[in-house]
Design a protein that fits this description.
This protein is mostly helical. The chain has helices spanning about 1-20, 30-65, 70-90, 100, 105-110, 115-125, 140-150, 150-160, 165-195, 205-230, 250-270, 275-285, 290-310, 315-320, 325-345. The radius of gyration is 23 Å and the shape is globular.
């Protein structure tokens, strides 16, 4: 009798599990291929093209400045840097393909930068930035420090009197540009087509890449650009204003707004099919009970409203830990559950990375 009961229990468990796994096995009127093609052709490739074009301009301007520093060149170089930062905000969610091979994210924008280590390498004439421990002494944050950490007069004097400083800056910018151009070339010369044809929802599918890297990019936006500086992940809970992105040129708020707007655009697929449309198809088919696409977009709008309440320099909000930035962080936190848990579940995509955020 015990064996019969055990058999019935196991049978019921298997039946329940099978039904649960088939929850999203619903026929929907949606073309995953069209969505992937839209992402590749209309969002990712153009974004990397713009980014690589801006890094090329930055490199050309850096060559000119370091060969003969003057005030006009420095001013132009700073403008070039802002353009690169803004274009980076529109590609940092696309960390798959060749970008993974070269660790594009960590090589490009690991902040806060280690200014003392940069100065030590410049003094020693050490221009090697290829080691695994070099992430915080190169990339955009290092350029920001070298160009914006003092008055223009002081910066000019440093580059005029110390040739090593110019060599270090040029080395950093060259790596930025080389990586940007190589990543764009990879997408433009075959990977876009490969990406668009890689259907399914298993961990090696393009849909999985999009969903996972999208979530990573959003959590970087919430944590690295706001939460960590607020002390949300530290034992002391103390704020760290210098830990924000683009601290020295005070473009933090501008870049945060661009990051959020870009992430919402990616969610909606810009002018074509995107994750929002995929969720809407499941909603209309009855696979999910909630209009999750509208819910996520509404939360994005709340976050953008909170950003509009902030002012420059954003680091002042962080230092004060005022109600404005605390409210912003709270609204950003709410979106994590929607995209990381609810969206991934609705699309039957497994989150394949781990973090220590406690979401």
């Amino acid at each position: 009798m015990k064996k019969i009961n055990l058999f019935l229990t196991l049978f019921a468990f298997i039946l329940f599990t099978s039904c649960d796994e088939d929850t999203n096995d619903v026929s929907v009127d949606f073309s995953q291929t069209d969505m992937l093609s839209n992402y590749a052709d209309n969002l990712i490739v153009p974004a990397f093209k713009n980014y690589s074009t801006s890094t090329a301009s930055l490199y050309t301007a850096t060559e000119s400045f370091t060969s003969a520093p003057d005030a006009d060149k420095l001013s132009g170089l700073k403008e070039n840097l802002i353009e690169v930062y803004e274009n980076w905000a529109k590609v940092n969610a696309y960390q798959y393909g060749y970008a993974v091979d070269i660790n594009l994210q960590t090589n490009t924008n690991s902040f806060p930068t280690q200014r003392d280590d940069i100065d030590a390498k410049i003094e020693a004439g050490d221009f090697n930035i290829e080691s695994i421990s070099s992430y915080n002494i190169k990339g955009l944050p290092a350029v920001d420090y070298l160009l914006n950490s003092d008055t223009d007069e002081a910066i000019l004097l440093e580059f005029t009197e110390d040739e090593n400083r110019g060599t270090y800056l040029l080395t950093v910018v060259k790596q930025l540009n080389d990586n940007a151009v190589a990543t764009y070339d990879a997408w433009d010369n075959g990977y876009a087509a490969e990406f668009a044809s890689n259907e399914g929802n298993d961990p090696s599918s393009s849909l999985s890449y999009i969903v996972n890297e999208y979530n990573k990019a959003y959590e970087r936006c919430k944590n690295q650009r706001v939460g960590y500086a607020l002390g949300k992940n530290s034992i002391s809970g103390n704020s760290s204003p210098m830990s924000v992105e683009s601290y020295y040129n005070q473009e933090t708020l501008n870049l945060l707004k661009i990051n959020v707007a870009s992430l919402q655009e990616i969610f909606n697929g810009k002018d074509g099919l995107g994750l929002a449309d995929y969720l809407d198809a499941y909603y209309k088919a009855g696979s999910i009970e909630e209009d999750l696409a509208s819910k996520i977009n509404a939360q994005f709008e709340l976050i953008k409203d909170k950003l509009d309440e902030c002012s420059d320099p954003f680091s002042d909000h962080i230092e004060a830990k005022d109600a404005t930035v605390e409210s912003l962080y709270d609204e950003m936190q709410k979106l994590v559950v929607m995209i990381k848990s609810e969206m991934s579940s609705a699309l039957s995509v497994k989150i394949t990375y781990q973090d220590s955020d406690g979401d």
